[in-house]
Design brief:
The chain is mostly helical and about 120 residues long. Helix content is about 50%, strand content about 10%. It is built from 4 helices and 2 strands; from the N terminus they run αβαβαα. A two-stranded parallel sheet has the order 1-2. The radius of gyration is 15 Å and the shape is globular.
Length: about 120
């Protein structure tokens, strides 16, 4: 089951990479999963191209494999789940983004084959 981590506040590239590296070490992370913002028709738009480049930079800088994962509709699903649980889906506080990231991770985990 996917569980969310606290949201990292971005400051600058060097500080962000240092923080991600620290979290990866502390939690023995073996793979970084990055939300891939494809257009609704599945095509790449400018944001998806930027994310692809960013993921390649993360892989180079952190020395960990990075996997892009389709994030279409995760924010909508997160908002719906938060409303259903009587939580306030607040974009400013990061609540929706944290829930969307958890949904993204669970989607990835659900795609993996189950070991016998």
């Amino acid at each position: 089951m996917a569980l969310g981590l606290p949201t990292l506040d971005t400051r600058n590239k060097r500080a962000d990479l240092a923080e991600l590296a620290r979290v990866a070490r502390e939690r023995s992370i073996e793979l970084i999963l990055v939300g891939y913002p494809l257009n609704m028709n599945g095509e790449l738009g400018p944001q998806a191209e930027w994310v692809k480049e960013y993921a390649a930079m993360l892989e180079r800088e952190l020395g960990l494999p990075v996997k892009l994962w389709d994030e279409r509709l995760t924010s909508a699903a997160a908002t719906r789940l938060l409303r259903e649980s009587n939580a306030r889906p607040d974009r400013k506080s990061g609540t929706v983004d944290r829930m969307a990231a958890t949904i993204l991770l669970q989607s990835y985990l659900d795609s993996l084959p189950i070991a016998p």
